[in-house]
């Protein structure tokens, strides 16, 4: 059985995995989701959050796992899971990028987003007055993140969206041999309206075919298709 550690994306928290965890547990797998610093129930001040702090929080969670984990990162979490792999590759069985940014060494997530053929989320971003973070316009959240999700899940999620610290996304990430030693898989979401599906193809164009798969969902398969997502994660672990 596999051990999964699930990492949320921008403005989200561990709460977004609520429907996936029961499916993983029901099949006998270990699975946890954590709040990154300043997300969800974590009270770290926004001004203290860095990409390195994200990575070290993930490493700390992996150190308490009974075995190397399948480390799953959604959306912006492609960056912190990659940084964690550079710090502690021996703690990771496999990296799984779920419609996530795959870092180019030396580039920041902001640079990666700007390199996309479109930035559909940009019009929904609202920068906080102090310049430390951004939030998502609630009126646009469903269209950007949850357009195919059940109404109850949409209401649940929008009520919980929080501020996203900007510094971690503006920090370049350098990756080396430690990161390269960890197996990885990418799950594309073909109806994604946050990270363009064609950009997800671009980010994985050099990957072996067997290391890329797809789900026909929005940016939030954890609400749209939790069973299918859990099954895919289990297949990734087995593969």
UniProtKB/TrEMBL annotation:
The AB hydrolase-1 domain covers: 4-231
InterPro entries assigned: AB_hydrolase_1 (IPR000073), AB_hydrolase_fold (IPR029058), MES/HNL (IPR045889)
MF terms in GO: methyl indole-3-acetate esterase activity; methyl jasmonate esterase activity
Q: Where in the sequence is the signal peptide annotated?
A: none
Q: Which domain of life is it from?
A: Bacteria
| PANTHER family per record | AB HYDROLASE-1 DOMAIN-CONTAINING PROTEIN, METHYLESTERASE FAMILY MEMBER
Protein name stated in the entry: Pimeloyl-ACP methyl ester carboxylesterase
Q: List the source organism.
A: Roseicitreum antarcticum
Which taxonomic lineage is given here?
A: Bacteria, Pseudomonadati, Pseudomonadota, Alphaproteobacteria, Rhodobacterales
């Amino acid at each position: 059985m596999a051990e999964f550690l699930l990492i949320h994306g921008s403005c989200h928290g561990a709460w977004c995995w609520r429907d996936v965890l029961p499916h993983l547990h029901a099949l006998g797998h270990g699975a946890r989701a954590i709040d990154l610093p300043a997300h969800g129930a974590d009270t770290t001040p926004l001004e203290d959050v860095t990409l390195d702090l994200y990575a070290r929080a993930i490493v700390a969670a992996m150190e308490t796992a009974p075995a190397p984990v399948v480390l799953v990162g959604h959306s912006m979490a492609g960056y912190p899971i990659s940084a964690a792999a550079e710090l502690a590759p021996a703690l990771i069985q496999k990296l799984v990028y779920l419609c996530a940014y795959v870092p180019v060494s030396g580039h920041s997530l902001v640079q990666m987003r700007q390199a996309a053929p479109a930035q559909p989320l940009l019009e929904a971003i609202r920068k906080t007055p102090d310049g430390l973070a951004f939030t998502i316009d609630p009126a646009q959240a469903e269209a950007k993140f949850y357009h195919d999700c059940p109404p109850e899940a949409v209401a649940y999620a929008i009520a919980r969206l929080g501020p996203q610290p900007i510094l971690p996304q503006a920090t370049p990430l350098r990756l080396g041999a430690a990161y390269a030693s960890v197996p990885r898989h990418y799950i594309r979401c073909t109806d994604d309206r946050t990270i363009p599906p064609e950009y997800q193809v671009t980010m994985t164009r050099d990957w072996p075919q067997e290391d890329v798969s797809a789900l026909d969902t929005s940016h939030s398969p954890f609400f749209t298709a939790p069973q299918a997502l859990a099954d895919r994660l289990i297949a990734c672990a087995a593969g």
